[in-house]
Design a protein that fits this description.
The protein is α+β, with helices and mostly antiparallel strands. 27% of the residues lie in helices and 41% in strands. The chain has helices at 16-24, 66-71, 103-118, 124-134, and strands spanning 3-5, 11-12, 30-35, 41-46, 49-51, 56-62, 76-83, 89-100, 138-145, 148-156. Strands 1, 2, 3, 4, 5, 6, 7, 8, 9 and 10 form a 10-stranded mixed sheet that branches. Strand 3 (30-35) and strand 4 (41-46) form a beta hairpin. Helix 3 runs antiparallel to helix 4. It is globular, with a radius of gyration of 16 Å.
């Protein structure tokens, strides 16, 4: 894992263990930065699952979503996961993406996200989203970071 310091002269970067703990706990969104067909930037806040063994993020989304459309012609994105309260902390970076359309894998990622963000597959929203994924209306965006640029204002220099 390549880790850069996003706050040189102010705060210290996170360690690899701290990055993994930060992106696997809590319920922050991941913000995905893409470029649309007009060459204009788009930001997409969304739920995610992070696999600590593969060091990859996984986002389940509607197969005709704007973010997926933007990624058809450009498999490079920027991402950010952060804590918006003091002391600030976060991870951002550049990544390559791959679109995964395997139904079983998509349902698995959808379930992980629903449990993480809603606490249960029995939540009314979970039932709707999971049903949609099971019908094949979703895909998974696999996000492979090229680096992590991190900041942790608990570590002020």
């Amino acid at each position: 894992m390549k880790i850069l310091n996003a706050g040189p002269g102010f705060s210290q970067p996170m360690t690899e263990d701290e990055v993994i703990k930060f992106v696997t706990t809590g319920m922050s969104n991941i913000y995905l930065g893409t470029i649309d067909y007009k060459k204009e930037p788009n930001i997409h806040p969304t739920w995610y699952y992070f696999d600590p063994d593969q060091l990859k993020f996984y986002v389940e989304t509607y197969k005709f979503s704007k973010k997926r459309e933007n990624m058809k012609n450009n498999n490079t994105i920027y991402f950010c996961v952060d804590k918006s309260t003091i002391p600030y902390k976060g991870v951002r970076g550049k990544a390559k993406i791959a679109i995964k359309e395997d139904l079983d894998f998509t349902v698995s990622i959808c379930e992980k996200n629903l449990i993480k963000y809603l606490g249960s597959l029995e939540h009314p929203i979970a039932k709707v989203l999971l049903d949609s994924a099971k019908k094949g209306d979703s895909i998974v965006i696999e996000i492979s970071p090229l680096y992590f640029s991190t900041w942790d204002d608990n570590k002020i220099t």
